[in-house]
Amino acid sequence: MSDNISRKSIQDMAPVIYEIVSAGGSVKLEVKGVSMMPLLRNERDSVLLKKADNLSLYDVVLFKRANGKIALHRIVEINNDTYTIIGDNQYRFDRNIKQADLIAKAVEFHRGTKRIGENGIRKFGAFWYTTYPIRNFIRRGFSWIKRHLPDCIRSLRNKFR
User: What gap in Å lies between CA 136 and CA 94, rounded to an integer?
Assistant: First the structure.
């Protein structure tokens, strides 16, 4: 990697991103943070952003929160001219987000050579959001399985030898 490359915070880059996507361009960013886990992984995945138009339920958008911070989260409710948004790994909603607060829309996610398009983003969002009330229970279950499955498999192999 070249030494003359500098990293900027998303706070600093938001106006530039907005300008590029508003002019019809696109921007690819590496994901930072865990608020969109399990779909997006910190410093492993990237997103392709375009203009935030033709929005649908479960789209993922880059937006400015009421406190001025920039986040990449999912639309879970559309009310006339406002949106309710939440990260897949979050429990606090951002309500009454206006179109003017939206910077860009994620149209693709990338992990290595794998690509997820808009339809995949929405389908995962619809599934994941319906699990919202039991999300913590599901995550604990997956964590337990990940920890104990190898021991269970070993035990079964030894039992049937």
Answer: 19
